[in-house]
Request: fold
Amino acid sequence: MSNDLFKVKKPGLLTTIQDHGRVGYQQYGIVVAGAMDSFSMNISNFLVGNKGDEAVLEVTVMGPKLEVLGDAIIAICGGNLSPTVNGKNVPMWKSFEVNAGDRLEFGQPVEGARSYISVAGGFDIPIVMGSKSTYLKAGIGGFEGRALERGDVLKSARNAKGKRGRALHYDEVPTYEKEITIRVVMGPHLHAFTDEAVETFLSSTYEVTPKSDRMGYRVTGPTLEHETSADIISEAIPLGGIQVPANGEPIILMSDRQTTGGYTRIATVISNDISSLAQAMPGCKIRFQEVSVEEAQEIYERNDRFIRTLEKVSG
Amino acid sequence: MKLDYHALGDTGIQLVFGTEITEETNQKIRMFADYLNDHPIDGVVEWVPAYTTLTIYYLPRKLSFVSLRKKLEEVNEKQQGREAASASLVYIIPTYYGDDAGSDLPFVAEHNGLTKEEVIATHSEKDYLIYMMGFVPGFPYLGGMPEEIATPRRENPRAEIAPGSVGIAGAQTGVYPLESPGGWQIIGRTPVKLYDPDSDYPILLESGHYLRFVSVSKEEYEKIEDAVKCGEYVVETEEKKVGLRHEVG
Reply:
């Protein structure tokens, strides 16, 4: 039994169904995809009583205009893209009820780049290779393998009670600054770079360019020189891998990255900091800070404990 | 043999088996991956074999980098002196060469001073090792194409290449699993689906195994195509015993 939930009046810049991504198929060349900002995805789900990795709508910069077709409990987390219901501002990081006939619309982006809309019970989307995520380039998963278009009707998966008025404590709500520090574990191809390049990478400020999308963020700043070639024998490339092609300008690999690549990588962004990167708009300034893998895993532990605790209390 | 271990952030570890693309290195990587498949390590999420590396993704909640590396070193110990556990498979890929299915076949022939028939015979007689999968879903990186038919990419890449198209780019050969743009010289097409999102096993091929193109007529192509559509076609495979040369020292 599924229920009509939203009718798309205007799709927005790029609105897609995403969850934790397609895990386990990378050895066959299947791209992971999934929510760019997994923190916001998790929280938006917890607020409506879902499991953290239930599929949500990922809204990019200019959000959609949606007509509500059925009563539901929803939550919106992540970047503030000015969500309104019937023209009135609605809170972020807090669950609320929408009713049939309401208009859920987004306005100007205020802070961050991506919002996540969860609905109690989840969206009714077929699971393809273990995930509801949309991989746009190959047309896999999500809503018919593509971004939402005008006229699409989204359904909720099941009638779920959900709780309205459940909010994330304001101390825990992230802020999205125009200058951010992103922590990285160095390597694996450090030997391919000059010592100066490594020094430059860790001491300079880089700027997110408009050529940044779900596949990768191109950043601009002092170029990084290779000691040897910029090319390597193709190998698996991880989320957050920072590859540096021959032009010396870093590209940070994000959710829709290919599974394998042939460029040298100077470092990998720690998993905890991917979410803040996902909210960086073009023009955002980034500094890279080196941490050891042990430190990175301590940070992971803290974040993971926080998410597990919320999962317990929300369940 | 000692491996190099690199941390890829806090959730990945890369094992380096060598610095050159060889069948032997690939075989070792496959054996290692097979071992992980048969002896799962709690917390390991997935792995990606490549030409010279095996990359393993894991949950730091269950495994720290240090503890995983230790476990992997133990696995590596167990690999020493081990013969290939299982025979490799050869996937038989029926291919209709030339005509509208492979419109670059005349160019490839002319470029290499061969007849079309010679190109087909050279291309289809070999077992190509699937070194790795990537690029797009189900795409095999094949090794070992004879130099005699190597041909540069097209100067004007095509906007659309039909799924199943068999092509040559430089000294590489491959098959397009889905419709995509590309600059490969297209010499034929297979009715077999390398990528089928509606199947329980969406990807046909697996790295570490082999692939052989077998030339079929247009009539055979159409017959197989119909069978594929009805879900009645099973890709033929052959076993291939690949011995791992013993290491010295």
The first strand of chain B starts at residue 4 and ends at 8. Chain B has two domains: 4-79, 88-240. Chain B touches chain A at residues 6-12, 14, 19, 21, 33, 45-53, 55, 57, 60-61, 64-66, 132-139, 141, 177-178, 197, 202-203, 205-207 (CB under 8 Å). The domain at 4-79 of chain B is CATH 3.30.1360.40 (Gyrase A; domain 2).
